[in-house]
Amino acid sequence: MTTHYKLLVRAIAAIFGCIGIWWGSITLPDFWNFSSTKHIAGRIAAGEPFKDNTFARQRPILKEIETAAFCEPSATRSAAIIHLRMADAALSSGEHERIDELQILGRASRRSLSCSPADPFLWLALFWMSRGDTHVRPEDLNYLRMSYSTGQNEGWIAERRNRLAFARYDQLTADLAEDAIIEFGRLVESGFLQAAAEIFGGLAAKERNLVLMRLNHVSKRSREDFLKVLNNLGYDVG
User: Fold this and answer.
1) Tens digit of each residue's pLDDT (9 = 90 or more) over 70-83
2) Angle at 197 (CA atoms; ends 192, 199), nearest 5 degrees
3) pTM (2 decimals)?
């Protein structure tokens, strides 16, 4: 290798090294900010409660994620999860002046889907936004359908999705009603017995007989464990 060639290789390596350092200096602060957002989103997914001031401190970071020139799927997904939690809190507390959280959630979910169109949670978030409407629109049912088709086995998503599906069960198309029943069985099979019991006793009250009949497709052990939980809660299911 000639001296000239060695110098050229070293120069190119040095240039790429400088570019790496420059890029790191730009993206490292974002990395740490986005890490905190991902951490909070993960705890929300696990069902942990949060105070409003926790989310208030995240707002500048969420804004940064929404307006970023690049698309980082896990960051935009985390932002959508936090926006969903804030929108749910606003609706539950009756703070109608904060209902603009729904518009923010819609934008965040759609931006995230542009990065990761196969994310079942994001499709579910768009369906969730229809929960206050008297009638579910066909496009809203398509959001739920996409959530089922892109992910059936994520427990924390399935639990939330099953609640939403049974809340609007009488407006579901035949295929989505079937998906909801099958998903209920999966919750039982996967050990989400308390969540399944809550759905059975509340949102799926009108469909109890159908739900119990379809549990024949669940393993005997899981079915027996679930029936014990129901009997302990006072349901006479044999």
Assistant:
1) 777 788 888 888 88
2) 100
3) 0.75
